[in-house]
Write a structure and sequence with these properties.
- The chain has twelve helices and twelve strands.
Length: 278
Amino acid sequence: MERKLAVLGSPINHSKSPIIHTAAYRVLGLNWNYEKVEVRKGGLRPFVEALEPEWLGLSVTMPLKEEAAKFAESLDKSAEATRAVNTLVRTETGWAGYNTDVFGIIQAISQANLGTVNSVLVIGSGSTATSAVAALSQLAPNASVRVFARNARTQKQLVEFAKALGLSAKRVGNLARNARNVDLTIATLPGGALDEVAARLAKKRSFSPTGALLDVAYQPWPSQFASIWATKGQTTISGLEMLLWQAVAQIRVFQNGDTNEPLANEVAVVESMRHALD
């Protein structure tokens, strides 16, 4: 029987998840079909509850990650900590929720070989920013974290979350000043959200960011924001890296039920996924 999977969210047309999942399934020899479906905020539960038995699992993206966390019957450690789910897997009793974004961020940063990270600026305070902070608690537990966000309430909540994980964290109100004084900046906003900021920074000849940048926005790449770091000779990490590695963890879950159990022939799987993105 062909198994069905999909990525849900809104907007969803730009998603590259079907490309990389299909490439992985081909290498693994799986008769799985993966598509993308537009599901708007509030629409997750009715969509999932109407699915037929051949549906195996779902990837969940904006703006449904918090809804998925509330919908899932059980949560893995990352999902429980962040209250955000980007992966749903059908079980005998319902749906289990996982957060593989944390793994994706850890891998994306680790692969860049940045060395010791002592200070980080996180831009944004949504579910991806929460996953970024959770990743930092594992990657750089001694780093000081600064959170820049327009929503004062969620900014405060993210700082409190970081402190609960043992990180030194504080709110900041000046993006440019802080980007000049950190080892790593993580931009967690959707594609295009930082374009106006990038245009203003590009006009400031005195602005010169320090450290690397991970911009989770990958459509288009490089983003206008990432182009500033690249122009100044700093390392830029594409959101495509995070996308690839969180998908690897998703496929581990879909096949093995465990984010930590590598896939058979995983090196070839990753190579095929990366080639599909190129």
